[in-house]
Amino acid sequence: MLLFAAPLEGHGYGMPHDASLDGWRIDALINETSFFVILLFVIMVAWMLWAVFRHGRNHPARFDHGSSRRSIAVVLGIAAAIFFVVDGHLFVNSVLSWRDVFGNFAWAESQPEAVRVEVNAHQWSWAVRYAGPDGKFNTPDDIVLLNEVVVPQGAPIIFQLVATDVIHAFNIPNMRAKIDVVPGMVNRLWFTPKETGEFDIACAQHCGANHYKMKAKLTVLPRADYQRWAAEASANSARAFDPDDKDGHWGWEWSEHSRI
Amino acid sequence: MDAAELKAYEELQPIHPDPASFLRRYVFSLDHKVIAKQFLWSGLIFLLVGGTLAMMIRWQWAYPGQPVPVLGSLLLKNSNGVIGPATYMTVFTMHGLIMIFFAITPILIGAFGNYCIPLMIGARDMAFPFLNLASFWTFALSLVLVICSFFGQLGAAGAGWTTYPPLSTNIGTPGNGQTFMVAAIFVTGVSSIMGGINYVTTVIRHRAPGMGYFRMPLTVWGLWLTAILNVLFVPVLGSAALLLFLDRVFGTQFFIAGAAAVKGGGDPILFQHLFWIFGHPEVYILILPAWGIVSDILSFFSRKPANWYRGSVYAMCLVTVLSAVVYGHHMFMTGMNPLLGQSFMLLTLIISVPAEVLFLNWLRTIWSGSIRTDPPMLFALGMVFVFGLGGLTGLYLGATVPDIYLHDTMFVVGHFHLTMAAASFMGSLAAIYYWFPKMFGRTMSPGLGKLHFWWSVVLITLVFTGQLIAGYAGQSRRLYDPYQYSFLQHLRPLNQYTSYAAFILLAGQFVFIYNFIHSMAAGPKASDNPWSVGTLEWFTTSPPPHHNFDRVPVVLRGPHEFADPEVRERLGRDWIGQAEVLPDAAALPATSRGA
C-alpha cells in the first residue's frame, strides 16, 4: 500500500506541515500569541537599552519611589491590559477550541464515517487494532497492525490508547495531535486528516533507551482506497487469527468514556 | 528604640567567641557565613559537572552516535567515546537533577540565603546554627549519593529528571543508579526543609530593631518566600521519593499499573500530582531568590529607589501563593478532565499578573536613574532579559490548546531553561559579583566580569532560543537521535549551531573561574562598602567578623533610599544607610519612614 515513498519531510524553521482539518486552530493561536510576545519583548528590550544608554552615570537619578497613587495605577493598568488582551485571548480561544473540537468526542463519535482505533503502546512499539466489519473489538475479524495506522481522508479518526509497561505519548505533529498513554487507564484522542499522504507517529514521552526509535507510520488514503484496504486487511488478520494466543487479544470493548 | 528593647535584642543574639579549632572554624562550622561558602563551593563544582553533562547532550544532538571529543576518551572508554542510547538517558537525567537540586539550589538558596539573610536583617547568625550545620552536612550526604549513582550497576539514573514511574521503577530502570538518585532527592529534601525552617524562623525572630517587614531588602523577601515554599512543598517531594523508593526496593506498587506483564494496582498519575505540586513551586523556589536579588541590584546600581517596593513584595507573595495551585499545566496531556485542565489554565495565566507587576517595577526602577554598568548590574539586566523571554514563552505552555502541539517538545526545554537555568544563572552571578567583596574581602576584576557577562548573555540567548525554534519546528525533547523522524531531518544544522553556541558558552565560564579564584587569592582589598549601598551588610567590615555586628544596628528606613535631595544636602552623597542617623535632623523626613 505504499502510495508515497516516505513520510513528509519538513523544511524551514516553522511548524511541520499541517495536514489536519482543525490544526489551524492551534497554529493560529500560537502565531497570534507570538505576535503579542514579540511585541512585548521588543518594547521591553528597547526600554532597557534606552534606560542604560540615556540614563547612565551622568544622568541625575530621579528621587521617586513609584508609590504614588498614579504610579501604581499605571503599573496595575498595564499589567491588567496585558492580562486581558494576551492571556484572555489565549484562554478564550483555548476554551472554545477545546469545547468545539479537541475535546468534542461526542460529535466525533456521532459521525457515521468515524473510524475507531485502539492502540496498545509498549517498549518500544505501537500495537494497533481496528474493530473490523463486525464493529466489535477483540473478535477474529479485527484488523491488527504494528507501528502502522491507516486511515481515510476527511473522516474523524478516534483513538483509544493504553500502555502495558511505562508511560508513552502518542504524537502526530503533522496532525497537531498528542496525548499521553498511561498504564492503568484509557486515554483518547481524535482528529480529522485533511490531506492524504504518509506522516510520522512519534513517542513524545521518555520511555527508556530506545524511546527515540518508537515510531510508527500514519497513512491517510482516499476513502475508496481505504475501504478496499480495510476489507483486505481484515481478511488477512482473520486468516492469521490464533484463538489460543491470549496475549494477542489485548483489545477492549469500545467505550465512549476515556476511563474504563 | 528604648534601651530595654535594645538589651532584649542583644540577649537574644549574644556574641559568641570565635571558634578556635580548624574543624570548628572551617568544616563543622556553625557560622552562617562559612556554611554559605560551603554551599557555594559545592554548588559551583556541581554546576560544572552538570554543565559538562549538558555539553554531552548538545554533542549528541549535533552529531548523534559519533565519538565525543575530549570527554569521550575520558568518560566513555568502553564505547570508544560514543554515547549509547542507554548512556544518553542517564546523561540528560543526571544533568537535570544535578542542575536543579545540586547546583542552583545550593548556590541561590544554600549560599546566598545563608549569607544574606542574617547580614541583611542585622542578625548575628541564623536562629538555629546547629540546624544550619546539619542542613549542610545532610546536603553533603546527598552529594555522596549522587556520586554513587554515577557508579551504579547499569549506570546512573535514567528516568528523566521528572522521574516518572513506571519508568523510574524496576520495570524501566532496574539499576541501583536510579535508586541512589531517588535516595539523594529524599536526603537533599531533608536538607532543604532544615534550611527552610531556619530561614523562616530567622526572618521572623532575628530582624534588628526597626527592621519591619516592609524595610527588608527585596533579596530577603525573595529568600524568605522561597524558604516558606521549601518548608511547605519539599515534604511532598520527599513523600513521593519515599514511595518510589519503596516501589523500587521493597516491591510495593504505589505507582505501578498496567497489563499482566507489569501488574500493579497503583497509579502512575498519582506520582505526577505529588511531583508537580512540589515541582511548580520548585521553579519559583529557584527563581524567587533571583527576583529579589535583581530587584535590589537594579535599584542600587540605578542609584534610584526601587519602583513601588510594596508592589514588588505583594507580587512575590502572590506568586508564592499561586505557585501552589497552577501545577496542573504540566499534566494537560495526561488525560486530565477538561474542566480541571481549564481551571489550571486560568490559574496559570493569572500568575502572569504579579510577574508583570514585577517586570514593570524593574523597568520603571531603571528608568530615569543614573545607571552604573558594573558587572552585578549587567547580570541583573541580563536576568531581566532572559527571564522576559522565558516568561513570555511560558504563555503558550500554560494554555491547553497550544500545549497540544508544544508539550514535550524542545520549546518546553527552551522555555524552562530560560526561566530556571538562564535566569537563575544570571541572578546567581549578579549575586556573586555583588557580594564577593563582602564574602572574601577582595575585589573581582570588573573588566573580566564585563567580558564574562557579554560572552554569557549572547551565547545563553542563542542556545536557548535555538531550543525554542527547534521545539516550534516539532522536535521532541530527550531524543537520542532526532533525525530518525522525517519531519526533523532538516533541523540538523539548527541543532549544530545551537551546540556550537553551547560549547562556546561553557568555554566563556573559564573567564569567570579564573576571575573568581584569582581575585579570592590576590584581588585588591575591598573596602567595607564598595558599591555605596545602604543595606546593613555593608555596615560591617569586609569580610564581616564572626558575630557580624559589634552592636545590633537600629534600622531607621527602607533599603533603597537613593537620590534623596535632603540626604544629598546634608551628607553630600546620593545614598544613606538603613541604620544611619541623618545628621542634624530633629524630625526625620517623611520618605524614611518605611518605603
Could you explain the architecture of this structure?
The complex is a heterodimer of chains A (260) and B (595). Chain A has 260 residues and is α+β, with helices and mostly antiparallel strands. Chain A folds into 2 domains: 23-55 and 66-102; 108-248, Cupredoxins -  blue copper proteins (Immunoglobulin-like, Sandwich). Chain A has 4 helices and 10 strands; from the N terminus they run H-H-H-E-E-E-E-E-E-E-E-E-E-H. In chain A, the strands form 2 sheets. In chain A, strands 3-2-1-5-8 form a 5-stranded mixed β-sheet. A 5-stranded mixed β-sheet of chain A has the order 4-10-9-6-7, covered by helices on one side. In chain A, helix 1 runs antiparallel to helix 2. Chain A is elongated and about 90 Å long. The relative contact order of chain A is 0.16. In chain B, 63% of the residues lie in helices and 0% in strands. Chain B starts with a helix and ends in a 24-residue tail after the last helix. Chain B has 18 helices and no strands. The chains are: A alpha+beta (260), B mainly alpha (595).
Indicate the topology:
The complex is a heterodimer of chains A (260) and B (595).
Chain A: H1 23-54, H2 69-102, H3 105-110, E1 115-122, E2 125-130, E3 143-146, E4 148-152, E5 157-163, E6 168-172, E7 177-181, E8 187-191, E9 197-203, E10 215-221, H4 223-240
Helix pairs in contact in A: 1-2
Chain B: H1 3-12, H2 22-27, H3 32-62, H4 71-75, H5 85-121, H6 129-150, H7 176-205, H8 218-249, H9 268-302, H10 309-322, H11 338-350, H12 352-366, H13 375-398, H14 400-406, H15 410-440, H16 446-472, H17 492-522, H18 565-571
Helix pairs in contact in B: 3-5, 3-6, 3-17, 5-7, 5-8, 5-9, 5-15, 6-7, 7-8, 8-9, 8-10, 9-10, 9-12, 9-13, 9-15, 10-12, 12-13, 13-15, 13-16, 15-16, 16-17
Q: What series of H and E elements makes up the topology of chain B?
A: HHHHHHHHHHHHHHHHHH
Alpha-beta content class of chain B: mainly alpha
Structural class of chain A: alpha+beta
Helical fraction of chain B: 55-70%
State the end-to-end CA separation of chain B: 19 Å
End-to-end separation of chain A:
34 Å
Can you count the beta strands of chain A?
10
CATH class of the largest domain in chain A: Mainly Beta
Number of domains of chain A: 2
Report strand % of chain A.
Answer: 15-25%
Poorly predicted tracts of residues of chain A? 1-5
Compute the average pLDDT of chain B: 93
CATH homologous group name of the largest domain in chain A = Cupredoxins -  blue copper proteins
The oligomeric state is heterodimer
Structural Rg of chain B = 24 Å
Q: Tell me about the biggest sheet of chain B?
A: none
The strand order across the widest sheet of chain A is 3-2-1-5-8
Helix content of chain A: 25-40%
Low-pLDDT segments, ≥5 res of chain B = none
